[in-house]
């Protein structure tokens, strides 16, 4: 009897240990779904950037406009040396994606507010900004699920903006919106590359 109870206790202990471990093979379905969402966003962010520029007036709407050197404090930049990016582990790759989109969630709302003030009749742009933010939140939910399955803690929630962000001038708001849309486009491209690697590692 004692040996039977000991064996049962050992089995229960092994099950509990197994349940406590991070899943070494996270949901391939969620990874594939996230990849597909990123691909959808990839097509839409190109249109979002072009629509944004076309509605802002000169110089933004001028043919061939480009201001790649323009930055805005707090907006995540996707550009990264290839070898450094390629050598990242899953944890760092996912954590950087999560941090970027958590920040874009706030900035996309700010750009929507700016455009609602500056161009309230730009219904197509406002709709696209709202859709981008909603899909960003879907992306964040998927990233949270994948990271939990892999035992990776999500970065603590932060609010990167203060109320003073709404107090800049009209031209500065247009510049900020351009940087947000451009870097958002770049980050979505990077996410597609990240999840191409993850899909290969965790095939459905």
Can you walk through the features of this model?
The chain is mainly alpha-helical. It has one domain: Growth Hormone, Chain: A. It contains 6 helices and no strands. Helix 2 (28-55) packs antiparallel against helix 5 (123-149) and helix 4 packs antiparallel against helix 5 (123-149). It is elongated, with a radius of gyration of 21 Å. Mean pLDDT is 86; it is low at 5-23. It is found in: Secreted. Belongs to the IL-6 superfamily. One of its GO terms (molecular function) is leukemia inhibitory factor receptor binding. Residues 1-22 form the signal peptide.
Sum this structure up briefly.
This protein is mainly α and 204 residues long.
By DSSP, the count of extended strands is: 0
Q: Percent range for helical residues?
A: 55-70%
Mean pLDDT over the residues: 86
Class by helix and strand content? mainly alpha
Name the shape in a single word. elongated
- Radius of gyration from CA coordinates: 21 Å
Strand content: under 5%
Task: Please identify the top-level CATH class.
Answer: Mainly Alpha
> Span between N and C termini?
45 Å
Protein name: Cardiotrophin-2
Keywords: Cytokine, Developmental protein, Glycoprotein, Secreted, Signal
Signal peptide: 1-22
Main location: secreted
């Amino acid at each position: 009897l004692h040996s039977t109870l000991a064996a049962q206790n050992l089995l229960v202990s092994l099950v509990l240990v197994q349940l406590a471990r991070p899943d070494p093979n996270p949901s391939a379905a969620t990874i594939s779904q996230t990849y597909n969402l990123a691909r959808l966003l990839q097509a839409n962010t190109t249109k979002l950037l072009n629509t944004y520029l076309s509605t802002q007036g000169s110089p933004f709407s001028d043919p061939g406009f480009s201001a790649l050197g323009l930055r805005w404090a707090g907006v995540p930049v996707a550009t990264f040396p290839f070898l450094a990016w390629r050598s990242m582990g899953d944890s760092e790759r996912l954590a950087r994606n999560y941090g970027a989109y958590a920040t874009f969630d706030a900035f996309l709302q700010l750009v929507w507010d700016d455009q609602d003030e500056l161009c309230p009749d730009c219904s197509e742009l406002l709709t696209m900004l709202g859709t981008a933010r909603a899909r960003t939140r879907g992306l964040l939910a998927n990233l949270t699920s994948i990271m939990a399955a892999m035992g990776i803690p999500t970065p603590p929630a932060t609010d990167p903006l203060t109320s003073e962000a709404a107090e800049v001038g009209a031209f500065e708001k247009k510049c900020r919106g351009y940087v947000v849309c451009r870097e958002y486009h770049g980050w979505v491209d990077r996410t597609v590359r990240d999840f191409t690697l993850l899909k290969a590692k965790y095939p459905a």
